[in-house]
Amino acid sequence: TIRRAPSTDEPGFEAKGQRQVDEKVAIAEAAASLVTPGSAIGLSAGTTTWTLAKRLHDIPGLTVVTNSIRIADVLHAGGSSAPNVVLTGGVRTPSEALVGPVAVASLELLHLDVLFLGVHGMDPRAGFTTPNLLEADTDRALVAASRRLVVLADHTKWGTIGISTIAPLDRADVVITDDELPAEALESLREIVDDVRVAARPPS
Predict the structure, then answer these.
(1) What is the mean pLDDT of residues 59-74?
(2) 171-194, pLDDT tens digit by residue?
(3) CB-based burial of residue 201 (10 Å sphere; 0-12 exposed, 13-18 middle, 19+ buried)?
(4) Domains of the chain: residue spans and CATH
(5) Mean pLDDT, the chain, whole residue set
(6) pTM of the predicted structure, to 2 decimals
(7) Burial 40-54 (b: 16+ CB within 10 A, else e)
């Protein structure tokens, strides 16, 4: 029997950053290929989106909206080649996200071409979920501000359910996962999401 974590369990950023590292790199590289020069994109807080952020320095004319202090730091480290970064305000969570009414209010006035959303879990019934209620509100505001939704979720997220739903699975335009996702789960996901991409992990 697989023991799932409680629906409100929220590991810190450092703890999550040590999990599924190869999978996150593969997913981030696949996601980076979807970023268009001159676009306005959103990056939700999380270790997979943070891994993606490290691959965005050479894309010209990019504006990145994020509620993640860690992602903003990574992007600013690019110096003169760094994208324009818009960091929401808000209250900090264990995963280094800025959440709450200040974050939500700042996002309601924005219009993004595409959002890259990291999630705690994905499930056919529960959708894309998070263990943090305030983070769910902020993520929903990011989704609402975006014309296109790309979800980044490694295989361990399948069947995991956090306490709050961000969006149903069919809201995603693209889901990028890794090649460890079981075939049955991949088939189920493709019945709901039109574009599911499987990123191959680098050889050991």
Answers:
(1) 95
(2) 999 999 999 999 999 999 999 999
(3) middle
(4) 21-199 (3.40.50.1360)
(5) 91
(6) 0.90
(7) bbbbbbbbbbbbbbe
